[in-house]
Amino acid sequence: MTDSGRPADASPDPLGALLALEGVPSAYAGCRDGIDALLRDRGLRQTAPESTTESLLRGAHASAVLEGADVDLDAVRSGTDDLTAQAALRVSTELLGLVPLLDRAPLQALARLHALAASGVLPADEVGRPRNAAAADALGMLGRTLAAPTEAPALLVAAVVHAEIATGGPFASHNGIVARAAERLVLVARGVDPKSLVVPEAGHLALRPAYESNLRGYRDGGSAGVHAWLLYAPEAYTAGVEASPLR
Fold first, then answer.
1. What residues make up the domain containing 229?
2. CATH number at residue 228
3. Which of its termini does the chain have fewer beta carbons within 10 Å around, N or C?
4. Does pLDDT of 43 surpass 80?
């Protein structure tokens, strides 16, 4: 860990120190129990593909609104001219196909998320690429963090990935959409929600003032801000459970 409390570059477990923060292990354990209960009680193995599609649609809508779109869920479901919503929908459409890539080449997966979001918006030489050398270094560190063995629960890994992208802004556009998509992708790839039925983006939207405040704290508040974000994220995931189409 660095002095700020954010993930360190060289450590046997780059996220290990986060597990020592007060309240963090219990918060994530309780959140995981809630997710497991939803999936177990609704019979995950019998879940229809339409439920996954609806979950991804709800996530795209929430992510677009958090990115500044003024569009409701019905408009997103039926088709919309809003460019931000279209970007979020492009990402959601291909998200689950990126699960194997996240496992073997996490930086390529993140680049692909940005390429989907920024398609037709940025010049070709900026799509899927870090915006400068510092951003490239930060993405490299994040990629190494994702590739490293860790005792941290997958929910915590997802929260860190989200915050690092959202606050670091490594791409020239659409960093919020990429951050929230990467968060969901981690939850799928690491077995928390294999069929992507929880809607974490909707959880963040439901808690929007806290979401935005805690992201600012993660960026500017040092170790205390990181700690606060890590305690906030399980609340958002719990709200994401309530937004699931299985409810």
1. 19-242
2. 1.10.3290.10
3. C
4. no
